[in-house]
Design brief:
- The chain has 64 residues and is mostly beta strands.
- The protein is 0% helix and 50% strand.
- The chain has no helices and six strands.
- The two termini are 23 Å apart.
């Protein structure tokens, strides 16, 4: 598993850090269709929609 962090802002220009987690290796030890998930530093899950990210309930929308 690898991860990277990148900045994003909400509609009020408040800055957040999005963390992308990516599974790189499948069970057979070869590159597989990687599973990617996105979270905020507090563990809140995010759904990616192009260059936007939102919480599953829609309370927060971020743009990179």
């Amino acid at each position: 598993m690898s991860f990277r962090q990148f900045p994003a802002t909400d509609a009020n220009d408040v800055e957040y850090v999005i963390i992308e987690f990516k599974d790189e290796v499948g069970d057979a030890g070869t590159a597989a269709d990687p599973h990617v998930r996105y979270e905020l530093a507090d563990g809140s899950h995010l759904v990616r929609e192009g260059r936007s990210f939102r919480t599953p309930g829609g309370e927060l929308t971020l743009t990179v």
